[in-house]
Amino acid sequence: MATEEAYIGTWKIVECVSLAGTVETTGIEGTEFNLDESGDVSWKVSDDVEPLPFFNCETFEVNEVVTGKGYGHKAIKFIGTYAGLEVNFQVEISDDLMLLTYERCCMLQCQKISSPDPKDDIPYSFLGALEEGFFSDLTITGESGKDFHVHTTILRLTTPGIDWSKTPTPLTGLPNDVLQITLHYIYAECLPRGATEEAVRRCVKMVAKIPDLAGFIKLCNIFLENTALKQQITALVTDMHSSADKVIELFRGMKVDESSQMQSSSVNPARLCYITKQCLREAATALSKLLVLCDLFSRRKAELSREERNDIIKYARSRIPVFLRQWLELLEECKGQLGNLTPQQRHDLATYLVPEIEQGLELFTQFVVDGKAALELIISHSEVEKTDRADKHRKGHVGDVLGKMLKHALHVRELKKLKRLNERTTLSFFHFMQQKESFCTVSQAGKIRDIAKLFESLCDIVQISHSKVTEILDDMDDWLSWRDWKYIFKLATSKISWAICKVQQNQSMAQPLVKQGCDMVHRDEFSTSLTSLGLLANSASQNNQSSPSSGATPKCSTFRTKYVQLSSVESLSVSPFARDSHTAQQALKLLLSQKNTDLTFEIVQAQEVGDTVIDHMGNTPTEHVHAESEVAVCQVPAHRVVIAARCDWFKRALLSGMRESIDRKITVHDTDPSLFRVFLEYVYCGQVELNDLSTEQISDMMTLADRYDVVCLRSKCEYALKHHLDENTVFYLLTLADQLTAKNLKESCMSFLSENSQLSTCEVISDLPEHLQLEVEAVSLTTLQEAHSSTDTPSSTSSVSEIDNFTDRMNIESPLSSPSSSEVAVPESARLQECLEGLREVVGPDVPEHELVSISLAADCDLNRAINFFFL
After folding, report:
1. Which of 234, 749, 780, 793 is the most buried (most CB within 10 A)?
2. Distance (Å, rounded) from C-alpha 230 to C-alpha 211?
3. Is the pLDDT confidence value at 800 over 70?
4. What are the start-end ranges of the H helices in 522-581?
5. Which structural domains are found in the chain, ordered by start?
6. Taking Cα atoms as reference points, which of 439, 246, 211 lies closest to residue 326?
């Protein structure tokens, strides 16, 4: 059974197969989706593909499903906003192929096109050149006279349609902040951190007519939209906190005067009833703001990046402790109020509340009856729609039949959900009517007695709730992890959005019920929220109170806790990865074109007499090898500002004042010209395709990346070489990993050797450096020890003897052989085991066993020395 890690990566839909087994062309072939370790799914869909329900899903889960016969299989669940439903696929996975089966619909065959690289791309930009100004060849002057030193080579990459040679230079005379933001985008394809809303508005106004900056204007508009969204969400959450504060203040105002000594007359039943109604109205208002928040997130999240969506979800999670503290304060007030009531006061309150409760029950009964009627009408309308969908999905072209079938299947599930809701509502209503009838049939004295007992039980309920909330607040991180909260938030907002959508679609049926709710709450803010949701038609009764999207900041909670500041524009201040960067693509084209170059790489390579060096560009031979020198020289032109901005080693060389900077030439030794060209392409565009390279070529590329300190490329090569490990390459890669201090690759080699202990007898081991020979021998010994410990042996002596025989065959001295000195009383094997156990206690369980064995042997099994060796 595949683990969840097997699903992580990027997949491509190869074909769609009907349940009858026929392959159908649906148009979604080629669609890519990425499943990451955090539980997010992102889709890359062509514009001409019909939008299917699961394309809107952005969360996934892999679960184990057990059938009625006891058989288990994996199921992947895509969670989105389509009808508030999860889209569940049964999944079968084998190597790089995955089959997704949707019930009574189709099977999607998917192929993995990439696995997650632990060293993913880094943001692509030329900001270093802009900030440091090296090799600048153009100056743009701002409105205040400030000069900005820029580079025509980079300006033409992003804005090829602008003539930067004319006078005055484009962008000259713009306000400093506008010019700085614009240049930041040209060099980094993002906005600078800390950009103000006003400055971005001025950018839109002043730069909109300049050609080739349409992407910049679009980014600015997104910034303004997201800023408005941030203000809306913050205002909604603040309003909810304010409503909670008002409820607390209302209960706090019910405290009796201490001078009255808790007389019966101290409790005003009419005031208690009034305050309770006001509290319920405030709670309903806060709930309406929550509905607006959920609907706002569901409608706008498609416009946000994953980072921005996660930012909003983190902000919501950070507010939970504040709401819990408000809830605690409310429970404390309720506990104090209820605990101080005397039996006579409870009796007086119950007497006053009997007619109020009877009236409330009648009102609630009518509301539920109307609600059930509206729900049944919606179900009836949905059944008609189901029939129409069933007829439609049988017709039409093959290309859209999948979408119709999927939507029909999901609509059937939606209808079942509505029917289950109606069944639960009917049962609850039946139970409620029984309780109501039981209450109404008893005498007046019996009603008063029941209500008085309810006050007593409420004290216990409040106390239990207080303890539970306190426990949750103390263990917030354990109680609700980030991944669980993200799942809950997305699913909850999806379901709420679905419910709002259903009411909108059946507004004529639900309108009387919504108006009845507005009359019961009788708050303009509540009505305004429902109007903004499209659930209530505009009413003249609405006044000019703040709408849910208002930027007003009412009183917030008295509890001040640290929480995440919502900033849905942070991702707009991060440069795109190289694979998504337009500038990176243009930089590669610039390298291939060889235009306006001002630097030469001279690749010197030892070669046989008579060979001819051919330029990697496919041009005429650059230089013929002279027989007397036996050296081939290949020249590759480049651009100083590009390689200096993209590689710190080259920048230091070109700014050092030494020969490289004077001659504008960098000499490269002992490298294949074609391989160096690939390396240079990575420097320019930040991407490299390693799948087409051999093990030796990737190794050479890793050596180049290490020489010139290109860390990301070095990591990519190290990761790629792990997949080239086999019996023929393990010792070669082990030596390379040791030379370049590639810890991950070295651990993979050692792990491979431990799993293939027969390789320890290879003659090639003698060619390894001495310290590597010792480490390989240590791995072999450890593997043999583990093998003996897992089998039944006559005695430990026989195990040690076999290890001695094994090391004799290796022509090395056994570290487990008995010491020649009679002064040593403890056998070497026992000393090694004792040292390993002591070392493991100090360094923890994460260090590989073979590494500890090597350290212990080097320290002569002395624990203190081994500890020193490890930390040195």
Report:
1. 749
2. 30
3. no
4. 524-532
5. 4-114 (2.40.128.280), 127-224 (3.30.710.10), 225-255+269-532 (no CATH), 756-872 (no CATH)
6. 246
